[in-house]
C-alpha cells in the first residue's frame, strides 16, 4: 500500500535539499517558522535536520534599535546572534576607557562567539548602528547539546572557526590601514 506523502492543510513539506530530511511540519507553529528561517541561512548550510532542530529549540528572533548595546566587553557571554538585517559596530575598550571601532558586521554575520570558549567572557563590545534583526541562540544550552552530540558540536565548531578567522583577518586589515595612515 502506498503511503500518502502529501501535506495536510496548514502544513508544508520541507524539501530534502542541503541533506535536510523530508518531513511534515506544521507551518502555524512558531518554532517551525524559526527552523525554516535557520535552515535558509548560509551560515548553517548543509546541517542535517536534527542539528537544525537543535538550533531552533535554542533560538528566538530579536531586534535591536540603533545605539542599543548587545555585548559589553568583559561581561559573561552565554549567547550568540546571527544578523538577518541591519548593522552592528564591534568595539574594543582601551586602557583609558575609550572605545575603538574594530569593524562592523551585517547580514549573515555572527556575533558573540565567546560563549564557546573559556573563560566565557565577551572579548568586544557590540552595539547596533542600524535597526538590526537577529536570531538569538542560547549558548549555554547549545554547549550542552554539543557535549551530548559530538557531530553537532563539530559542525558548529567548523562554522565558528571559519567566522573567527574571517573576523581576525578583518581586524588585521583595519590595524594595517591605521598603522599606514599614522606613519608608524
Summarize the structure in words:
- This protein is an alpha+beta fold.
- The strands form three sheets. A four-stranded antiparallel β-sheet has the order 3-10-5-8.
- Helix 1 packs across helix 2 and helix 3 crosses helix 4.
- The longest helix has 33 residues.
- It is globular and about 50 Å long.
Keywords:
184 residues, Jelly Rolls, four-stranded antiparallel sheet, globular, disordered N terminus
The top-level CATH class of the largest domain is Mainly Beta
Intertermini distance: 78 Å
Count of individual beta strands: 10
Structural domain count: 2
- Supply the CATH superfamily name of the largest domain: Jelly Rolls
Q: Report the mean per-residue pLDDT as an integer.
A: 84
Number of helices: 4
> What share of residues are in beta strands?
25-35%
Topology, element by element:
Layout: E1 11-13, E2 24-26, H1 30-39, H2 49-57, E3 59-64, E4 69-71, E5 79-85, E6 88-93, E7 99-105, E8 110-111, E9 125-128, E10 132-138, H3 139-148, H4 150-182
Antiparallel strand pairs: 1-2, 3-10, 4-9, 5-8, 5-10, 6-7, 6-9
Helix pairs in contact: 1-2, 3-4
Summarize, please.
With 184 residues, the protein is an alpha+beta fold. It has two domains: 51 residues, no CATH class; 125 residues, Jelly Rolls. 34% of the residues lie in helices and 26% in strands.
